[in-house]
UniProtKB/TrEMBL annotation, chains A, B:
<dbReference type="GO" id="GO:0016791">
    <property type="term" value="F:phosphatase activity"/>
</dbReference>
<dbReference type="InterPro" id="IPR023214">
    <property type="entry name" value="HAD_sf"/>
</dbReference>
<dbReference type="GO" id="GO:0004427">
    <property type="term" value="F:inorganic diphosphate phosphatase activity"/>
</dbReference>
<keyword id="KW-0539">Nucleus</keyword>
<dbReference type="InterPro" id="IPR036412">
    <property type="entry name" value="HAD-like_sf"/>
</dbReference>
<keyword id="KW-0963">Cytoplasm</keyword>
<keyword id="KW-0378">Hydrolase</keyword>
<dbReference type="GO" id="GO:0046872">
    <property type="term" value="F:metal ion binding"/>
</dbReference>
<protein>
    <recommendedName>
        <fullName>Phospholysine phosphohistidine inorganic pyrophosphate phosphatase</fullName>
        <ecNumber>3.6.1.1</ecNumber>
    </recommendedName>
</protein>
<dbReference type="InterPro" id="IPR006355">
    <property type="entry name" value="LHPP/HDHD2"/>
</dbReference>
<dbReference type="InterPro" id="IPR006357">
    <property type="entry name" value="HAD-SF_hydro_IIA"/>
</dbReference>
<dbReference type="GO" id="GO:0005634">
    <property type="term" value="C:nucleus"/>
</dbReference>
<dbReference type="GO" id="GO:0005737">
    <property type="term" value="C:cytoplasm"/>
</dbReference>
<keyword id="KW-0460">Magnesium</keyword>
<comment type="function">
    <text>Phosphatase that hydrolyzes imidodiphosphate, 3-phosphohistidine and 6-phospholysine. Has broad substrate specificity and can also hydrolyze inorganic diphosphate, but with lower efficiency.</text>
</comment>
<dbReference type="Pfam" id="PF13344">
    <property type="entry name" value="Hydrolase_6"/>
</dbReference>
<keyword id="KW-0479">Metal-binding</keyword>
Length: 212, 212
């Protein structure tokens, strides 16, 4: 492998994950990971383009950015690529009206979306909102469609909180896939389209990118 | 294909499903399917051995049989092969202490089972008990085991109630499989061992059986 200096020579942009890279989520807004506040500040002073790319789907970008700013990060909403706004764009482009199986914290991202008479399901890391009732509602919506469309904000298996491991959206996506005999469309990492939209936002090509 | 008379010539036993064959479940104990009460009575008067084989995992056999008797069926607990008692036998044989992710209606079947300090998870059609909290508890138990054991009472995708389609245990089994990267052991149909135990109970070989 080439030495770091050489490998970094062509780098023009940096894509930073948020949870587990900048901070650990948890009670009271979470805690910044040691050195990360200063690292972001230094990157922003450098010649590199910086973009934040997250699969966070329990919070709106506004809430997430507010939390990070309180922890000392130099970050604004416009610098964040997140699955909820990406999903909204897809919904609008395709005339889809979702049944939303999501956390209340991210609902504001869907304010402009028509959810009447649903013709698809959007599933995100809904936490306690993954009740049997809500899952069954989503299932029934899908089963009544001729071509069921299930959009999943990420497909993570689980994540870590200070209180222990927590089920992420992926297992619930799999549950609905199996129940309906369908395949979900994943919006968020590791979907190539999602990475591409983050790159486009900073005008950087994939081979010029460093991803953390 | 041979004519019915010839095909039935070697038949010595009949395996009858319950839900959807004898009755349709629903509010107020469900309703008998037309002709099924008399069909069971006639089979029992014939030279054929009769066994009831169900994947019902929301009710104990006692409750299920009580319900069917009230609908007019000639049936007793000892004639029913069901996944909960089959699972109990496996738990005892292998020294397994389950975390039970099950419906309260079937809990009495596990009265004799040690559930302290769980070293496996048993999942059944838990209905409203499939809360995020309960699913996460089951997940955490599995993730703390060196060799996670997940036993699923059936793997049905959904079933029909008078109020509409309802998610069965299968989707939740898939969710835990994906979350933990494991494969569940299915107790109940279509597991061959389960059919075998039903056949053994009436002393009939597979080629002598008619299954409805």
């Amino acid at each position: 492998m080439a030495p770091w200096g050489k490998r970094l020579a062509g780098v023009r942009g940096v894509l930073l994950d948020i949870s587990g890279v900048l901070y650990d989520s948890g009670a009271g807004g979470g805690t910044a990971i040691a050195g990360s506040v200063e690292a972001v500040a230094r990157l922003k002073r450098s010649r590199l383009k910086v973009r934040f790319c997250t699969n966070e789907s329990q919070k709106s970008r506004a809430e997430l950015v507010g939390q990070l700013r309180r922890l000392g990060f130099d970050i604004s909403e416009g610098e964040v690529t997140a699955p909820a706004p990406a999903a909204c764009q897809i919904l609008k482009e395709r005339g889809l009206r979702p049944y939303l199986l999501i956390h209340d914290g991210v609902r504001s991202e869907f304010d402009q979306i028509d959810t009447s008479n649903p013709n698809c399901v959007v599933i995100a890391d809904a936490g306690e909102s993954f009740s049997y009732q809500n899952m069954n509602n989503a299932f029934q919506v899908l089963m009544e469609l001729e071509k069921p469309v299930l959009i999943s904000l990420g497909k993570g298996r689980y994540y870590k909180e200070t209180s222990g491991l927590m089920l992420d959206v992926g297992p619930y996506m799999k549950a609905l896939e199996y129940a309906c005999g369908i395949k979900a469309e994943v919006v968020g990492k590791p979907s190539p389209e999602f990475f591409k939209s983050a790159l486009q936002a900073i005008g950087v090509e994939a081979h010029q990118l460093l991803s953390v």
